[in-house]
Amino acid sequence: MKQASWSYAEEFVTEDEVLAAARGRAAEVGVVPIGSGGGSALRFLASVLEARAVVEIGTGTGVSGLWLLRGMRGDGVLTTVDIETEHQRLARQSFTEAGVASQRVRTISGAALDVLPRLTDGHYDLVFCDGDKREYSAYLAEALRLLRPGGVVAFDNALWHDRVADPAQRDEETVAIRELGRTVAEHDDLVSLLLPVGDGLLVAKKVWTPDAD
């Protein structure tokens, strides 16, 4: 795909002033949020799933959270986890500017692998992961427990700045993301897809099993 076509697709769904302000806050504190193409994909997934309960790993300043909330049901609740309390403060500012009711967002400060085990099994429609890349495989294990049958897990940075596709790149984060991709692709209980939006969005649906009902 030529750069012009990629850029056209990436910007196909435009962002408003609220998202632009959230991105501005991200730049100020050194956070790199999901791109507009990935964000619109998250909104689409949340909408198709008619998501009522979503987990987000990596709150940032609220960019991905805004996209998710805009696709979720009106009574849906986003549970978002981040180790940086200042980032979550800025995210809450973004949500307030967007007119999101406070009861629709539950912010939890802490390390994801400490927080996720405390969340309810089989309760969530969508889990979005944008935290420590070295922990992606552990996030997958938690997501499989948290998701209802038919739910979806999504991982940002699945192409990791063009490093994942280059076998010569062997740094810890690249290897972790590459191994995650193989695990997801080979998992019997997942239907997966790698979308070349932004820095790559790996998505997988938890399939229904005979005992799911």
TrEMBL record:
It holds the Pfam family Methyltransf_3. Gene3D superfamilies: Vaccinia Virus protein VP39. Keywords: Methyltransferase, S-adenosyl-L-methionine, Transferase. One of its GO terms (biological process) is methylation. InterPro entries: Cation-dep_OMT (IPR050362), SAM-dependent_MTases_sf (IPR029063), SAM_O-MeTrfase (IPR002935). GO terms for molecular function: O-methyltransferase activity; S-adenosylmethionine-dependent methyltransferase activity. This is Putative O-methyltransferase YrrM. It comes from Nocardioides soli. The lineage of its organism: Bacteria, Bacillati, Actinomycetota, Actinomycetes, Propionibacteriales.
